[in-house]
Amino acid sequence: MIYNIYKPVEWTSFDVVKKVRIITKEKKVGHAGTLDPFAEGILIIGTGKDTKVLSSISNNSKTYKAKLILGSATDTMDNKGKIIESKVVPRLEMAKVNSVINSFAGDYKHYPPMYSAKKVNGVRLYKLARENKIVKRNPILSNISDISLNDFKETEVSFSVSCSKGTYIRVLGCDIAKKLGTAGYLDQLIRTKVGTYNISDAIKINDFEKQWKSITD
């Protein structure tokens, strides 16, 4: 079966997989695309034979809503990390912010962050980062099919983005901040769409458990 689960903040993607495995008693459970612990939203879960289609689902475009905080950078590029840089935020007009946001549409070359599940020589980057090791990473060329400014308030920039597989929105947020002449990190990230799966149809894990029990009891 394929399930559209709403991953809450603080949970890892594996936490959701583990919980679904316990609820369904399925031995084979996987997901279609990792969401960082600080992020929330759609996490597509597959069980049994349907785990075979997860890779094709993961290859679909994804849509996110993000909130970027300007003026500081963290080692993880999100609100869970340590502040490693503080920088003055220049006076910005809405038109300037909108122009910078729109400039990222199209092909987007960037490097995977050290705090990520990306593997280098068989080792997850976040494991190396926790040992204060920085290694060379190959650039990623992804595509941003749509990006738009949702709101701007002095040091907060909210935007929506639709992109291809492998796009790191934390890196995108930092790059937007740099282009605005300052530093930044993501304070919120919500995945709202994966291919044809929408957040409006996503089910919270507690509700999923209740529904499963009502069917199987």
Question: Can you tell me about this structure?
Answer:
The protein has 217 residues and is an alpha+beta fold. The chain folds into two domains: 2-59 and 196-216, Pseudouridine synthase (2-Layer Sandwich); 62-194, Pseudouridine synthase (2-Layer Sandwich). It is 25% helix and 36% strand. The chain contains six helices and 14 strands. The chain has helices at residues 13-24, 54-58, 94-102, 125-130, 169-179, 205-216, and strands at residues 2-7, 29-31, 40-47, 62-70, 72-74, 83-86, 106-110, 119-120, 123-124, 140-153, 156-163, 184-194, 197-198, 203-204. The strands form three sheets. Strands 1, 2, 3, 4, 7, 10, 11, 12, 13 and 14 form a ten-stranded mixed sheet that branches. Strand 2 (29-31) and strand 3 (40-47) form a beta hairpin. It is globular. The model has no long low-confidence stretch (mean pLDDT 95). Keywords: Isomerase, tRNA processing.
